[in-house]
Design brief:
This protein has about 120 residues and is mainly alpha-helical. It has seven helices and two strands; from the N terminus they run H-E-H-H-H-H-E-H-H. It has a two-stranded parallel sheet. Pfam families: HHH_3 (PF12836).
């Protein structure tokens, strides 16, 4: 019984290590910690990605990322993609702060109660 448990534990550890090593990280949705989890991206590069994404919007594709963020040449970007970095769809997300968010909150508060709960 003990030997069977050890085999099961070893298999589970191997699967966990494999899934962690190849976890995909979308550059258009990731936070700093997720970007740093990719081998080859440190805190400075993660910050550069986040700053550029905030300034110029989501990245359209790998070429857009390479053009906008210094240090992402062809081979470096290929290596990072092999490590799990993905460039997801360049969808503009709704603002979560500022005037637009306040306007959305005001609209939600102005709705009748029956409408707000989906009736």
């Amino acid at each position: 019984m003990s030997r069977r448990f050890l085999h099961w534990f070893a298999a589970a550890a191997l699967v966990a290590a494999h899934s962690h090593a190849f976890a995909a990280v979308d550059v258009n949705a990731a936070d700093e910690a997720a970007l740093i989890s990719i081998k080859g991206i440190g805190p400075a590069k993660a910050r550069a990605i986040l700053d550029e994404r905030a300034a110029g919007g989501p990245f359209r594709d790998a070429a857009d990322l390479a053009q906008r963020v210094k240090g992402f040449g062809g081979r470096a970007l290929e290596r990072l993609q092999a490590e799990g970095l993905e460039i997801g769809p360049a969808i503009e997300h709704a603002p979560t702060s500022g005037a637009f968010a306040a306007r959305g909150l005001a609209r939600a508060q102005a709705r009748p109660a029956a409408m707000a709960i989906g009736q």
